[in-house]
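Hi everyone, sorry if this is the wrong subforum. Our group has a chain we'd like a structural model of before ordering constructs, and none of us has done structure prediction before. Sequence below.
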Amino acid sequence: MKRRIMSIVTILTLLAVAFSLAAWALGSDTSLQKAEQGRLSSGQTLKEIGRQRDVEGEVPISEGNAEYDDLYLLAKHSDAIVIGRIGKEESAFSGEDHIVTTYLVEINRVLSDKMAETISTLKVLGEHEPPAPLSTPLKIVREGGVVSVDGHRVAKTLRGSEALRAGQDYILFVNWSRDFKAYRLAGGVSGAVLVDSDLAVKPLGSGKGLAIHRGTPLESFVAKLLANL
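Answer:
Right subforum, don't worry. Here is the predicted structure as tokens:
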């Protein structure tokens, strides 16, 4: 009987400890949530937060960086398609809350150029400043990047962008951006196709519709692409 009572006491003690731990964890989560809400409601900009500590987040999906999952739709909705090598890469703040990475691309081939149509559209919209010509070096921008603020690392990551590196060759699908006064990748990183050292292509987009072209020889890929433009 005594042993039975001891067992019951032990069980009750363990249950009490478990409930206490659960309550502590819940309280901690609530505290963290309140702290995060407090930070967000403080009105601080990304740059201001970066002056205090390291910050890392993802670039939200928007109309401008939503990936394509079809090569031919990607090509259809691009102002131009070029083959070139990234010569320089630099990330910087654009305003107080956004980071933008700029690439200077040495163009060696223009596969498609529909800029005349784009210029006509811009004139209809009342934009009289013409887009930059498709010449070398071509300025291309994308959202996100890594910058240093007072010794702190501030990063906004665009998925797949780590494969965009200086010194590498790419097929780039681009659109003119009136906001940035530069070209930007069509469909986020789906607008970049790496050309590896064996002259085979590797789409950077995450969709299966682009992944099926992985490993295709460069000239075969270009022939397929041009045949469907």
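For your construct planning: The beta strands are 55-58, 80-94, 98-113, 138-143, 145-149, 152-157, 169-177, 182-185, 192-195, 201-203. Residues 2-6, 17-41 have pLDDT under 50 and may be disordered.
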